[in-house]
Amino acid sequence: MRFRHPDGSTVHLAYCTNVHPAETLDGVLAQLRDHCEPVRRRLGRDRLGIGLWLAKDAARALVTDPAALRGLRCELERRGLEVVTLNGFPYEGFGAEEVKYRVYKPDWADPERLEHTAALARVLAGLLPDDVTEGSISTLPLAWRTAYDDARAETARTALRILAERLDALEDLTGRSVRVALEPEPGCVVETTRDAIAPLTAVGHDRIGICVDTCHLATSFEDPDTALDDLARAGVPVVKSQLSAALHAEQPHLPEVREALAAFAEPRFLHQTRTPTSAGLRGTDDLDEALAGDRLPDAGPWRSHFHVPLHAAPAAPLTSTLPVLSSALTRLVGGPHPLTRHLEVETYTWQALPPELRPRGRAQLADGIAAELTLARDLLTDLGLKELP
């Protein structure tokens, strides 16, 4: 979906396909048929943006076979779909029964991460619509915080500098500009937007910036205005933003709140949980750890890294951080000029919701994704952007 900003520029809205498990190119093609096109039809649109997730094997097939890349591009066009952004965070196995810490491997100190991201950039340059010259790729925020020392930090910075050089060369070759964005996430080396400033300024290249995920921002209790002001002062570009909402519990000391939260503690994904205290932010790596005894102070609210559907906040006594998303979006695209032109709805946890909230079959999932995109569209038009055909 495309929108015209009052300054005349185009803002793109997509939804991320990491919600649909696929490790191979055949799986990706099936996604387009079984999920993405039905979402587009529900929205009544001739064109729908998707934030494509390509696992290692799918990316390798595309980058080594020009015919396969042309075939994917033709399939996108045939189904009324377009790609301007990729989710390059998960490497493989995102549809596994247990993902947890595996999603952070390989990290930016491992050569595989550089090669995979460079391959994604080449693929994206070949998938961009004819009238679009800029693409974006979100990636993990350097590494999970453990086993990350000064030597690995320097290796990661070097890898990002090499990537920037390759992206320069890619634009010289194709005329397409691709930028890569570190996505701050709780528990990682870069947990907050402020944490991103030092490593990104050390890399010192405008092709490497930040992805503002509004669930992660909220989970860390970051104020959107403060975060975006800090990035602007440091000259760190907001390459893209993922529109997502975290799980919020205002009174976690109450037994009924604990019971409601426990329904979201599931075995597939990591749900880092945070609470503000007078001594600073406290947290656990997962929601079940927070619920175990007194591991986490409960005098203040808790927020958990669980991407809940934008249009359907959990029932009381829980809620979501949709207001944080709205506030961030106002700053990102509601000013005289957009801070980013790539927006991506990223609720990948539909099948990890409590059983009674999960979609039953493809049709209900498509309905839910279409409802999320409708909400995002309404937020954008309320900010003065005009939806384009």
Describe this structure in words.
This protein is α/β, with parallel strands linked by helices and 389 residues long. The protein contains twelve helices and 15 strands. α1 links the parallel β2 (10-16) and β3. α2 (56-64) packs across α4 (111-127) and α4 runs parallel beside α5 (150-174).
- Molecular shape: globular
Helix percent reads 40-55%
Overall structural class, as computed from helix and strand content, comes to alpha/beta
- Spatial separation of the terminal alpha carbons: 8 Å
Q: How would you briefly describe this protein structure?
A:
The chain has 12 helices and 15 strands. By secondary structure, it is α/β, with parallel strands linked by helices. β4 (81-87), α4 and β5 form a beta-alpha-beta unit.
Topology:
Layout (H helix, E strand, L loop, with lengths): L1 E3 L5 E7 L8 H19 L4 E5 L3 H9 L1 H13 L2 E7 L23 H17 L6 E6 L10 H25 L2 E6 L10 H11 L4 E6 H6 L4 H11 L3 E6 L1 E5 L5 H8 L10 E5 L2 E5 L2 H5 L10 E7 L9 E3 L1 H12 L8 E4 L16 H21 L3 E2 L2
